[in-house]
Design goal:
The longest helix has 13 residues. A hairpin with a 5-residue loop joins strand 5 and strand 6. The strands form four sheets. Strands 7-4-3-8-9-13-12 form a seven-stranded mixed beta sheet. With about 210 residues, it is of the alpha/beta class. The protein has a single domain, classed as Class I glutamine amidotransferase (GATase) domain (Rossmann fold), CATH 3.40.50. About 30% of the residues lie in helices and about 25% in strands.
Length: about 210
């Protein structure tokens, strides 16, 4: 069982050891956030916003987008988003973190894309961070990386024959896999990702600045 670290409002995060947090404070990390038609708006924007505030270079990539070079997607509540670029195999190879949001229709589109599944497997096998929220962890199961992994997701979305171990926690970190429950946990999810990439002090400072906690 890992150690618990709080980010306010009784949110609990799990870590396998005391070395999870980056201690050098360097701001050279990169993250790729994938988005498709039907992705949940807040679960995309909150992590992108918080990671960028922490100094992480974030690349928002449209999977199966339309218009403007394939960069436009329509989120789950009808908001059109113009992403930084269109997803293609290899587009996140230089990143330290890949993030997959929820939204059932968006998740289904991400899960159906073989290059997305391949990227998830590649990140996981190389020890880089793989993160997902709400229904998004179903894509991680489809990628085959969840055997024995302690995880969370939107309650009721966990597979009936889950290879991992579901827990009712807002955010869970097991190894290099980060999962969260849904829209209401998108802020602690984003703060956790910021801390994992930029260090605990950066996360705590960011929490104070955005009045979380």
């Amino acid at each position: 069982m890992g150690k618990r670290f709080g980010v306010g409002r009784a949110q609990r995060m799990w870590y396998k050891d005391g070395e999870t947090w980056r201690k050098d404070g360097m701001m050279d990390k990169k993250a790729a956030v994938l988005m498709a038609d039907g992705s949940e708006d807040v679960e995309v924007v909150a992590p992108v916003d918080l990671l960028r505030r922490a100094g992480v270079e974030v690349r928002l990539l449209a999977v199966g987008g339309h218009g403007d070079g394939g960069r436009v997607v329509t989120a789950s509540h009808g908001i059109q988003v113009t992403c930084d670029g269109a997803w293609e195999a290899g587009a996140a190879d230089d990143c330290d973190l890949i993030v997959l949001p929820g939204g059932m229709q968006g998740m289904e589109r991400l899960r159906a894309d073989g290059s997305v599944l391949a990227a998830v497997r590649d990140f996981w096998s190389k020890g880089k961070w793989v993160a997902s929220i709400c229904a998004g962890p179903l894509t991680l199961f489809a990628a085959g990386i969840m055997d024995g992994v302690r995880f969370t997701c939107y309650p009721g979305c966990q597979p009936k024959e889950a290879a991992g171990r579901w827990v009712d926690e807002p955010v869970v970190v097991d190894g290099n896999v980060v999962t969260s429950q849904g829209l209401g946990t998108a802020i602690p999810f984003g703060l956790t990702l910021a801390g994992l990439l930029e260090g605990r002090e950066a996360m705590e400072e960011l929490s104070r600045k955005v009045l979380w906690g």
